[in-house]
């Protein structure tokens, strides 16, 4: 399946991927409203790791043998027909086992409501995830490997 | 001490739009923007701003604007402009030589804008380049005085041995920009774009990084007064060798790459110790006459076994025509002339803004002089120095150039905003910097595409202009000054340019 891959050698650490990810997961999907009007603020599901000059974006790798899916107590983490790892907040009980088993640190806590988790969903409805679309230096690519 | 120098720029931040995402903070390499956690707002120190516009372009909400500071420092803006006052103040505070980057911003007349092109009407047909073949291929190098043909049986063949030539698919080359002044990624992008477009890039005096040796067939290597990076391999991999005598932005001046920019790979490429200043002397210490130049030209021809054209690059100065004649007679196969608007990574402002002559006049004078002396065929002419668009190029070719060098326009294509701060080594666009996190800002894949696009776009436009004139090959335009007319020029200027006024 197509996944988002970072290219460390051209990641400039601007974090526009984080910003647009947050907007994409906001209610309004409007950048100014998402930051200034929506509280609690939406969560970004991608994170830029940086220690200059090294920088790159990390998000769910949608592992074929996903430890989070195996570890999930309630079946909130599951793989869809494409192989994408998706999170169902309705089933999630916030045990955070998935956070502990994720080898990439790609799952984060979501304490806005009932203390669950949040992760990359590959932007359902979009042809290309918004982090890739808005990366100004093509440091994120969405491709089959 | 309190500085009396006002900032050059005003930064407008629209509070309604600013989401405090800190993209500007991270993008600004001059540390103008800073996030104030207490206020949950981004603040700016305008005095540090260079007006590079990086933050404006990257701001995801278009909340930022960077404008020149229009606050008049003095009532007398007729003679004592803000810029003049700031320069005096800067020197009063530092006692140093003022540095700058890029080409001069002094409003010297741009003769390209006072020349117009011809087009066919009724009596000769124009050509549609989309329907008919149009030839932009250009060969640079010495052309024979005459061609001898011999016929064996029925098949004629060329008896004359031709001198080595550079074959260009477009009459545009990337001018010398050294590795050290610009980042490796910029060099790689120019090399790749040259290969893709069938033209050449020029290493400048910074040597050729070993990873780019594979692009040798599209590379002109430079031998400058500092002789950085010159060895057998350097000459062997190149398509041509250029002896740099002068540069349009700073005629008569050498170069100085500060030690901070001499990183490990630059040290290896330039063949100097890490962290040492790379100083190019003002003259070549072995060239004090045309005869000396001839020795170097022939030394390089010997070293390359007479297989590569040797180019000599000079800045356009008052006696350019006579100097060019000497250079051709010294054995150069190509002569490059760089006009006063040519760019640089660093030069004293006073030199950049006051020394040299516009390329239009120099080019016309050199071409005419070589024709008058009957030696125009012995060398090709490359014109350089501030070519902004394809029309400038067409006019240059009509004035007598074989091809043109572009550099500033190439850098603009990959992000340069001509902020003139190249010499700081902190280029926020990742161009004139060696700081690894800034170098990453040029993605060679993207930059190569943009450079290739620029050349393609200009080539298409050149074809359109040629077609309009009823010409189907760039060869037929070369030195064809009848296709130019002057508007708003004096008789003397028209005489030097060798063109008629519009209407005649």
Walkthrough of the structure:
- The complex is a heterodimer of chains A (145) and B (504).
- Chain A is of the alpha+beta class and 145 residues long.
- Chain A is built from 5 helices and 8 strands.
- In chain A, a hairpin with a 5-residue loop joins strand 4 (77-79) and strand 5 (85-87).
- The mean pLDDT of chain A is 96.
- The N and C termini of chain B lie far apart (63 Å).
- In chain B, strands 11-21-20-18-17-14-13-12 form an 8-stranded parallel beta sheet. In chain B, strands 6-22-23 form a 3-stranded mixed beta sheet, covered by helices on one side. A two-stranded antiparallel sheet of chain B has the order 1-4.
- In chain B, helix 4 crosses helix 14, helix 8 (320-329) packs across helix 10 and helix 11 (390-399) packs across helix 14 (444-469).
- Chain A binds chain B through residues 9-16, 19-20, 31-32, 35-36, 52-53, 55, 134, 136-139, and chain B through 16-17, 19-23, 26-27, 58, 60-61, 430, 435-437, 439-441, 443, 445-446.
Uncertain segments of chain A = none
Q: Briefly, what CATH class of the largest domain in chain B?
A: Alpha Beta
Task: Classify the beta-strand content of chain A into a percent band.
Answer: 15-25%
| Mean model confidence by pLDDT of chain A | 96
Which structural class do you get from the secondary structure elements of chain B?
A: alpha/beta
Number of beta strands of chain A: 8
Chart the SSEs and their pairings.
The complex is a heterodimer of chains A (145) and B (504).
Chain A: E1 2-6, H1 16-24, H2 31-36, E2 47-51, E3 54-58, H3 67-71, E4 77-79, E5 85-87, H4 97-101, E6 108-110, E7 116-118, H5 130-134, E8 140-144
Antiparallel strand pairs in A: 1-8, 2-3, 4-5, 6-7
Chain B: E1 9-13, H1 23-27, E2 33-36, E3 41-44, H2 54-58, E4 64-68, H3 82-94, E5 99-100, E6 115-117, E7 138-140, E8 149-152, E9 155-158, E10 166-168, E11 172-174, H4 184-197, E12 201-202, E13 219-223, H5 232-237, E14 240-244, E15 255-257, H6 264-270, E16 278-280, H7 290-303, E17 310-315, H8 320-329, E18 334-338, E19 347-348, H9 349-354, H10 359-372, E20 380-384, H11 390-399, E21 403-406, H12 408-413, H13 436-439, H14 444-469, E22 484-486, H15 491-497, E23 500-501
Parallel strand pairs in B: 11-21, 12-13, 13-14, 14-17, 17-18, 18-20, 20-21, 22-23
Antiparallel strand pairs in B: 1-4, 2-3, 5-19, 6-22, 7-10, 8-9, 15-16
């Amino acid at each position: 399946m197509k996944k988002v891959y970072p290219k460390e050698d051209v990641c400039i650490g601007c974090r526009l991927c984080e910003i647009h990810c947050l907007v994409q997961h906001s209610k309004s999907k409007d950048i100014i409203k998402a930051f200034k009007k929506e509280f609690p603020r939406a969560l970004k599901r991608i994170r830029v790791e940086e220690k200059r000059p090294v920088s790159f974006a990390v998000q769910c790798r949608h592992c074929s043998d996903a430890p989070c899916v195996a570890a999930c107590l309630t079946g909130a983490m599951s793989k869809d027909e494409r192989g994408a790892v998706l999170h169902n907040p309705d089933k999630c009980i916030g045990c955070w086992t998935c956070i502990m088993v994720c080898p990439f640190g790609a799952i984060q806590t979501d304490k806005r409501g009932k203390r669950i988790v949040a992760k990359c969903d590959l932007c359902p409805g979009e042809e290309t995830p918004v982090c890739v679309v808005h990366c100004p230096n093509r440091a994120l690519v969405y491709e089959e490997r | 001490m309190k500085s009396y120098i006002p900032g050059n720029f005003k930064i407008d931040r629209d509070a309604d739009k600013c989401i405090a995402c800190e993209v500007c903070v991270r993008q600004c390499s001059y540390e103008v923007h800073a996030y104030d956690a207490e206020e949950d707002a981004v603040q700016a120190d305008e005095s540090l701003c260079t007006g590079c516009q990086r933050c404006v372009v990257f701001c995801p909400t278009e909340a930022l604007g960077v404008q020149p500071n229009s606050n008049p420092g003095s009532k007398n803006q007729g003679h004592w402009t803000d810029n003049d006052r700031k320069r005096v103040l800067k020197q009063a505070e530092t006692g140093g030589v003022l540095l700058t980057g890029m080409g001069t911003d002094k409003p010297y007349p741009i003769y390209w804008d006072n020349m117009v092109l011809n087009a066919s009407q009724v009596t000769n047909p124009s050509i549609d380049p989309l329907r008919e073949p149009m030839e932009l291929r250009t060969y640079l190098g010495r052309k024979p005085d005459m061609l001898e043909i011999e016929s064996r049986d029925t098949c004629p063949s060329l008896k004359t041995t031709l001198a080595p030539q550079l074959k260009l698919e477009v009459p545009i080359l990337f001018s010398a920009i050294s590795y050290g002044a610009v980042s490796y990624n910029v060099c790689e992008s120019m090399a790749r774009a040259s290969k893709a477009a069938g033209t050449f890039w020029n290493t400048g005096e910074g040597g050729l990084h070993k990873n780019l040796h594979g692009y040798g067939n599209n590379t002109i290597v430079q031998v400058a007064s500092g002789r950085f990076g010159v060895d057998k391999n350097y000459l062997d991999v190149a398509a041509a060798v250029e002896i740099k005598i002068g540069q349009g932005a700073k005629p008569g001046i050498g170069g100085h790459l500060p030690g901070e920019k001499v990183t490990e790979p630059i040290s290896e490429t330039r063949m100097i110790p890490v962290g040492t200043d790379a100083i190019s002397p003002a003259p070549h210490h072995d060239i004090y006459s045309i005869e000396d130049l001839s020795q170097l030209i022939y030394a390089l021809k010997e070293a390359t076994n007479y297989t590569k054209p040797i180019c000599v690059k000079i800045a356009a100065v008052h006696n350019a025509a006579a100097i060019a004649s000497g250079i051709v007679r010294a054995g150069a196969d190509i002569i490059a002339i760089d006009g006063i608007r040519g760019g640089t990574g660093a030069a004293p402002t006073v030199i950049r803004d006051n020394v040299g002559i516009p390329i239009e006049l120099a080019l016309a004078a050199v071409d005419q002089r070589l024709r008058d002396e009957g030696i125009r065929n012995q060398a090709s002419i490359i014109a350089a120095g501030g070519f902004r668009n394809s029309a400038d190029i067409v006019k240059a070719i009509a004035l007598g150039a074989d091809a043109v060098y572009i550099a500033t326009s190439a850098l603009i294509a990959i992000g340069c905003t001509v902020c003139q701060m190249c010499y700081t080594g902190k280029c926020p666009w990742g161009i004139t910097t060696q700081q690894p996190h800034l170098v990453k800002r040029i993605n060679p894949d993207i930059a190569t595409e943009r450079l290739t696009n620029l050349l393609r776009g200009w080539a298409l436009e050149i074809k359109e202009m040629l077609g309009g004139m009823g010409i189907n090959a760039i060869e037929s335009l070369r030195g064809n000054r009848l296709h130019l007319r002057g508007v708003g020029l004096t008789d003397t200027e028209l005489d030097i340019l060798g063109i008629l006024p519009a209407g005649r």
